[in-house]
Please model this.
Amino acid sequence: MIEGIIPSAGSTSVTSPASAQQPLGKDDFLQLLVAQLSGKLVDVPGNSFEHTQGETTALTYSLSKEASSTTIEVYNAAGTLVNTINGGGAAGSNLSNWNGLGSEGNPAGSGLYTFKVQATDSAGNIVTAATFTTGLVSDVLFEQGGAFR
Model:
């Protein structure tokens, strides 16, 4: 058991302090990790996202150094370029909002989309960009197929 964690849904008692227990075991550690992540929004490496028509979507990326020019290309599930937008160029984490419109100003339909980030510095050199997908943690899967929820 882990300090401060109620052992089961039907119990009202809280576990005792860690100092009064055995060392934290692997399963206890994993349960604590899952408890800390469940229900949280997290950014993970990736470039795909679900878009709902009429909504704005936040696109997250990281640049290896400051860029003087940053463009973000949004593609639909068929791989067709939907729109190109200008993004922030600060070194590190950046967030740009896509208004959900195509390049002609028409609303893009609901569905799966991807994005690519291209950035250059003031000398025209390529700046490395990493893209991230934001998601809500509902459960954690482990290599052996077990899940903690």
